[in-house]
Write a structure and sequence with these properties.
Domain 3'-5' exonuclease: 327-523
Catalytic activity: DNA(n) + a 2'-deoxyribonucleoside 5'-triphosphate = DNA(n+1) + diphosphate
Largest sheet: 6 strands, mixed
Protein name: DNA polymerase I
CATH topology of the domain at 11-267: Rossmann fold
EC number: 2.7.7.7
Number of helices: 38
Structural class: alpha/beta
Number of strands: 23
Subunit structure: Single-chain monomer with multiple functions.
CATH architecture of the domain at 11-267: 3-Layer(aba) Sandwich
Oligomer: single chain
Radius of gyration: 33 Å
DNA sequence: GACATCACG
DNA sequence: GACGTACGTGATGTCC
């Protein structure tokens, strides 16, 4: 056959590669390569399907030419026609993404042509090839079950559903669409397609569409003569939505005349090269398949070492030391293109951005580093300024030898947004936010900080320096050595490029090395699900919340600040008068001396630095003795509110957005909780009346409302579930007041005789249990004798013995394994549990608390991950998270629906991963400001 | 930079 | 039997 021109007698097979991939992915469990944990299930299934396909190619239907056609990642020309095209399609699963390039490799290993084209979908390539083959007089079989391809059937073109082994010809198409292949697009244009988000004509499905097309002959005829339609609603739709219908047709119409950079002749069937094919299969560690194909090809099967993972790691080629690393500066497009080519070859890249500051809402991009191989990284300087770091009046001109920013971004954008290329970073949320401000939506991503958090939570911090020293035995170049410290510190754009390159490139290099080490461990440590469902997908969600921010009214804060100042001044003179001397009220040391030495008040205890303690609890006790401590308490409250909130918050209002943009630290708390900083919006006052008014400054944008949805008693509910306390479960099921119920049980008081004082005690005990109760702690909290507190606890354990078992079991588990777990499988390490003395006591209480606090944290993370999609059809925005509460902003008209949708997501957040015996309940509030909404 | 204090869940 | 003690955070001001 070789050298024959495609024509009569030839038979072209066109395989829809994406359909193969997704079918393979869903048909197989999430297999990973044994030596390094690389996800490999879809590739395995894909190879099996290719093998079966090749094997079945005998007889009259055997092809002379064949190609596997893939969708090129990214957007197609249809997105230019309609930006919503395929917009509701969920992104590819994370563990599938790294497998996309491998399926291309597999195709080539089978020596089958493998084609994809940027800006076009696989369907268009298939259409163009099918038309070319048909016009040349050949026969075509499209191996796919995608109905969008049915318009191509006829004239020697057929489809084959490989799963059902069913051929589809013109009759088959007529069965499916009610019209012949030539009118399929007309029907699709009318019926639309919810999967691809093609709008079509509302209210018209395939049946009706076929009826209309058959009646009028064509879509154009139908639209021109729409007035003749009898049904008024249908007539109106067709007239009013004409433009939308015509646009839909252009979306579903496949392009048969694409300019291809290859010809049909190049698709001729070829035998695989045994060495290449078996090499690929054994590299993937497919034992069965390698052997089967080796037998078929009459070759000796290459041996695949039966290595356990840790041994395999030792087998990996030793990464070069950091001292011999090759770090280059990229100064022109040609060199950058070489790096981009390398990235595309690998299918992943470690990325790091250098910027002018730490606030990603304000900092500007200075340069980008890339790394695909340990020890080889590049730095692309973009906006470094001329003039050296020592020059105080450094020029604002750009330094020589840098690519134009726009050009570099334009070249990198397709790579950074490519679904098939994994972008690896350390704290990628930061870099992603910088990129968004430069018009690039980085995805998909992996994050070494989050990998470490999932793997090592509780063992150590997850910053780059810690990780590098710990896992790579390498101390990174300190940023201070480039920027200096304090007042004389410079910004990164003032660092000479020659100095910047080794620092920046090293960060990307470290990130890549960490990723190579951590990623396979997810599977071994059984935290893949935690990482994939609770950590990785949260990154874009948080990034969006942070970028959106919450509106804060400066005037409200400013007025309150002035009021606080006046009150403080009055209190201060009163305090000075009472003490008989002028001193700094804000100095605990000076206050302590006044109270306990000069005035000889009782209860003077010295802390570890030899100073008297003057904490609020001590001053409260002293308040019965003297007026002064009470005044100091008042002053302190105002001082706190003013400095931390009314004043500091104003500094955080973004000059352009007028909103406050906090930053969430996903790895902030060992338990799985997040932390908020710059500013911390998770500790805005609420407990005191005076403080709560601060929340009035957090307002909804014009025409909008703030919503607050919070989990009711989530930690106690989780405790009831994990400790299996039937009485508690029942109380939650019946909707009873849980603290009153507890009080009734342990103090033997009937519910109708309950007093607020008894209930308060029970509430303290309930919280105490969650925190790993001790007689001393409860006694201090309730200000009762220690013996009495211990009595309460004893009675509590008597009534709810399950609690004691839970505590003992949890501590024992921690001692045995070195960690405890949440219901979702998050591991929180407790290295101190083996310590002696008070440290062990701390660790025990932390171990008791962690699964409860951590499970609650996991629950709300699940809700947050699912929220954007759930509210996508609403003009609602999720703004803040405060541990068990989510804050939304939504136009007035959509309040009720938003509450109902968000509540459903939150209450169902544990499902289906975890079944809870106790239902989760969410309370909702609304208002013009946060005080009203809460 | 350590410490004390206090804001939140 | 003594140890110290509720769990998890971040921001601020003082003082060295």
């Amino acid at each position: 056959m070789s050298g024959t021109q495609f024509g009569k007698g030839c038979h072209l097979h066109l395989i829809d590669g994406s359909a193969f991939i997704f079918r393979a992915y869903h048909a197989l469990p999430p297999l990973t390569r044994k030596s390094d944990g690389l996800p490999i299930g879809a590739v395995a299934g894909f190879c099996n399907m290719l093998q079966r396909y090749v094997e079945g190619n005998t007889g009259p239907d055997a092809p002379t030419h064949v190609a596997v056609i893939f969708d090129h990642s990214g957007k197609s020309f249809r997105n230019d026609l309609y930006d919503q095209y395929k917009a509701n399609r969920p992104p590819a699963p994370e563990d599938l993404v790294p497998q996309f390039p491998l399926t291309r490799e597999a195709t080539r290993a089978f020596n089958i042509a493998c084609k994809e084209t940027e800006g076009f979908e696989a369907d268009d390539i298939i259409a163009t090839l099918a038309c070319q083959a048909r016009d040349a007089g050949g026969r075509v079989t499209i191996i796919s079950s995608d109905k969008d391809l049915m318009q191509l059937v006829g004239d020697g073109v057929e489809m084959l559903d490989a799963m059902k082994n069913k051929r589809i010809d013109s009759d088959g198409v007529r069965e499916k669409f009610g019209v012949g292949p030539d009118r399929v697009v007309d029907v699709q244009a009318l019926a639309g397609d919810s999967v691809d988000n093609v709008p079509g004509a509302p209210g018209i499905g395939i049946k009706t569409a076929a009826l209309l097309i058959n009646e009028f002959g064509s879509l154009e005829e139908l639209l021109d003569r729409a007035e003749e339609i009898k049904q008024p609603k249908r007539r109106q739709t067709l007239i009013e939505k004409r433009e939308q219908i015509e646009m839909s047709k252009t979306l579903v119409q496949l392009d048969c005349e694409m300019a291809l950079d290859f010809t049909l002749d190049e698709l001729e069937v070829r035998d695989p090269d045994p060495e290449v094919l078996l090499g690929f299969l054994s590299e993937m560690e497919f034992r069965t398949l390698t052997k089967r194909l080796a037998d078929q090809l009459g070759q000796e099967a290459p041996t695949i070492p039966e290595t356990a993972a840790p041994a395999a790691q030792a087998d990996l080629p030793e990464a070069p030391g950091f001292d011999v690393a090759e770090y280059t500066t990229v100064r022109d497009a040609e060199t950058l293109q070489q790096w981009i080519d390398r990235i595309r070859e690998h299918g992943y890249v470690a990325v790091d951005t250098e910027t002018t500051g730490l606030d990603e809402m304000i900092a500007d991009l200075v340069g980008i580093c890339l790394c695909v191989t340990p020890g080889q990284a590049c730095y692309v300087p973009l906006t470094h300024k001329a003039g050296n770091s020592g020059d105080l009046f450094g020029s604002d001109d750009l330094a020589e030898g840098q690519m134009p920013l726009e050009q570099a971004l334009e070249m990198l954008k397709p790579v950074l947004e490519d679904d098939a290329i994994l972008k690896i970073g350390q704290n990628m949320k930061y870099d992603a936010k910088i990129f968004v401000r430069n018009g690039i939506d980085v995805a998909p991503i992996d994050d070494t900080m989050l990998l470490s958090y999932a793997l090592h939570g509780g063992l150590h911090g997850h910053g780059m320096d810690t990780l590098s020293e710990r896992y790579l035995d390498h101390q990174p170049i300190p940023i201070k050595s480039l920027l200096g410290t304090g007042k004389s510190a410079i910004t990164f754009d003032r660092v000479p490029i020659d100095e910047a390159t080794p620092y920046a490139a090293e960060d990307a290099d470290i990130t890549l090395r960490l990723w190579q080490q951590f990623k396979p461990q997810l599977h071994q440590k059984q935290v893949t699900t935690v990482y994939e469902t609770l950590e990785r997908p949260l990154v874009p969600v948080l990034a969006q919340m942070e970028r959106h921010g919450i509106k804060v009214d400066r005037d409200t804060l400013s007025r309150m600040s002035n009021a606080f100042s006046q009150k403080m001044a009055a209190l201060e003179s009163e305090i000075h008068e009472l003490s008989g001397e002028s001193f700094n009220v804000g100095s605990p040391a000076q206050l302590g001396e006044i109270l306990f030495d000069k005035m000889s008040l009782p209860g003077g205890k010295r802390g570890k630095n030899g100073k008297y303690s003057t904490g609020a609890d001590i001053l409260e006790d002293l308040a019965t003795e003297h007026e002064l401590p009470a005044r100091v308490l008042d002053w302190r409250q105002l001082s706190k509110l003013k400095s931390t909130y009314t004043d500091a918050l104003q500094e955080h209002i973004h000059p352009e957005t007028g909103r406050v943009h906090t930053s969430y630290l996903q790895t902030g708390a060992n338990t799985g909780r997040m932390a908020s900083s710059d500013p911390n919006l998770q500790n805005i006052p609420v407990r005191s009346e005076e403080g709560r008014r601060i929340r009035e400054a957090f307002v909804a944008d014009e025409g909008n409302v703030l919503l607050s949805l919070d989990y009711s008693q989530i930690e106690l509910r989780i405790l009831a579930h994990v400790a299996e306390i039937d009485a508690l479960k029942q109380a939650f099921a019946d909707g009873h007041d849980i603290h009153a119920m507890t009080a009734s049980e342990i103090f033997d008081v009937p519910l109708d005789e309950m007093t607020s004082e008894i209930r308060r005690k029970a509430k303290a005990i309930n919280f105490g249990v969650i925190y790993g109760i001790s007689g001393f702690g409860l006694a201090r909290n309730l200000r009762i004798p220690r013996g009495e507190a211990q009595g309460f606890i004893d009675r509590y354990f008597e009534r709810f013995p399950g609690i004691r078992h839970y505590m003992d079991d949890t501590v024992n588990f921690a001692k045995e394994h070195g960690y405890v777990q949440t219901l979702f499988g998050r591991k929180i390490h407790t290295p101190e549990i083996a310590a002696k003395g008070p440290r062990a006591s701390f660790a025990k209480r932390a171990a008791i608390n962690a699964p409860i606090q951590g499970t609650a944290a996991d629950v709300i993370r699940r809700a947050m991950v699912r929220m954007p999609e759930a509210i996508a059809h609403l003009p609602a925005r999720m703004l803040l998270q405060v541990h068990d509460e989510l804050i939304f902003e939504v136009p007035e008209g959509h309040v009720d629906e938003t509450i109902s949708v968000a509540r459903k997501i939150m209450e169902g957040a544990a499902d289906p991963a975890v079944h809870m015996d106790v239902k989760l309940v969410v309370d909702a509030g609304r208002g013009q400001n946060w005080a009203e909404a809460h």
